[in-house]
UniProtKB/TrEMBL annotation:
InterPro entries (UniProt xref): ASHA1/2-like_C, START-like_dom_sf
Family: Belongs to the AHA1 family.
Lineage: Bacteria, Bacillati, Actinomycetota, Actinomycetes, Micrococcales
All residue ranges annotated as the Activator of Hsp90 ATPase homologue 1/2-like C-terminal domain in the record: 21-150
One Pfam short name: AHSA1
Leader sequence segment: none
Protein name: SRPBCC domain-containing protein
Amino acid sequence: MNTTGTTETETPEFTITRTFDAPRDLVWQAWTDEAEMAQWLHPFGVSTDGVSQDLAVGGRYRYTMTNTETGETFPTGGEYLEIEPKTRLVFTWGDPDAPAADAPVITLTFTELGAQTELVFHLSGIDGKPGDGWVYDGWDEALTNFGRHLAGESLG
């Protein structure tokens, strides 16, 4: 796993680019399979009990993260806006019941690089930067968990 090209702009958005040592088919599956998502879709110190989704344009997804120390829960979800299998996935993120027009939007781009896959994660509609201890850091940690999951590590 390798991290490159973090950018910031004056608009409320940020991008994190990672290259994973896994073929694009496996990266796509790990991002879209409910059971696999439940393994890695959370920052450090948090667990995800389960993920439910309707992987279709206009379909919704939902999961609840639980802080492993305090027990505080964070219901999260959104709506799928665009799906190009194994290439591009666009969805809203945040309050699972929020209307799509009011929610931040995540765009994922999956690029095959031989046996590796570059994943460009772009979040628009909310600020984030390294060290914010919140959105950017949370997604950065989730992407680290994603890479560990792809490498076959137990996130226990």
